[in-house]
Design goal:
The protein is mainly beta. It contains 5 helices and 16 strands.
Length: 303
């Protein structure tokens, strides 16, 4: 898949998530597009200076029951400093590369108290040069306390930390080595589904699934398949099964570019969490921070 205009795109997305100047009207986003036979669908979609936001109705399994909530997937390309492993201040620096960033949020309530969970994945667009996600972070907040996990890919493997309020977990230094991360599969779908690993493999379960199960942050044997959706030719299903964890994740996404995520199921010990798409838009959300922008949440179906 072509990856043209990386440096031009980095200039456009550099302003993403920066505070907008007060009393300044946000100009329309500039579209970067090639004309004629060299047109680049990937660049036309992902290098507009906008993020793709998709909202989902969520039924989240927890404590042996399903709890209603909502989820959101926010995909955007941005410059990333490979050494510091943070968003690059200078998108043209020699140390910068363009990544597909996913911010994945879940909110749901169990009885009287709420959960708020989020993970972020930073996957280089140039997959041949950088075959692994460079960084994953995850947070979980609920009335008992909160936790934070971070994994960084350095020197051919993942290292990181987990900070938890549970004594049995406490604070941990993590050394995982070169491994496939479940959290990276979502960005792999958006970049090129043909790169999804299939067959028998070892996978580090998703950081949010790990928070709910309180399992060890390490690779587990898994079986992965990629197949057409049984009900519609327009979708494909990527299924990841962990026999030892009694868990199966199935991600449903559009077969054609831009391979949008339409929903998923996550079955753990017989209880199936589901997410069903509600709304989607391309939006410079970092500039839409005024009370006048609240109707955009209604358009996305977000409470």
């Amino acid at each position: 898949m072509p990856r043209l205009l990386v440096f031009s795109a980095a200039l456009i997305v550099f302003a993403a998530c920066q505070p907008a100047p007060p009393q300044k009207t946000t100009p329309p986003a500039q579209t970067v597009a090639l004309q004629g036979p060299q047109a680049d669908p990937f660049g036309d979609y992902w290098y507009q200076g906008l993020a793709e936001i998709t909202s989902y109705d969520l039924q989240q399994g927890r404590y042996g029951e399903l709890h209603p909530g909502e989820a959101a997937l926010i995909f955007v390309t941005e410059p990333f400093a490979k050494t510091a492993q943070v968003k690059a201040d200078n998108p043209n620096a020699a140390d910068a590369t363009t990544v597909m960033k996913l911010n994945f949020t879940k909110t749901f309530t169990t009885g009287v108290y709420p959960y708020s969970m989020m993970f972020s994945t930073f996957t280089p667009v140039e997959r041949q040069q950088y075959p692994r996600a460079l960084k994953v972070t995850a947070t979980a907040q609920e009335w008992c306390g909160h936790t934070f996990t971070q994994l960084n890919y350095r020197d051919g493997g993942y290292e990181g930390n987990l900070y938890s309020y549970f004594e049995s977990e406490s604070d941990q230094d993590l050394a995982i080595g070169d491994a496939q991360l479940e959290d990276e599969l979502w960005t792999t779908i958006r970049l090129n589904p043909a790169d999804l690993p299939t067959g028998s493999l070892n996978v580090v379960p998703g950081t949010l699934a790990q928070r709910i199960s309180h399992g060890d942050v390490k690779p587990y044997p898994a079986e992965a398949t990629l197949a057409p959706h049984p009900d519609t030719d327009s979708l494909q299903v990527y299924t990841l099964t962990y026999p030892g964890l009694n868990r199966t994740l199935a991600i449903h996404f559009s077969a054609d570019f831009p391979h949008t995520i339409e929903g998923w199921t996550d079955t753990h010990r017989g209880l199936t969490s589901t997410a069903t798409r509600k709304g989607r838009m391309m939006l410079d959300y970092w500039s839409r921070n005024g009370t006048a922008d609240l109707p955009l949440r209604n358009e996305l179906g977000l409470r």
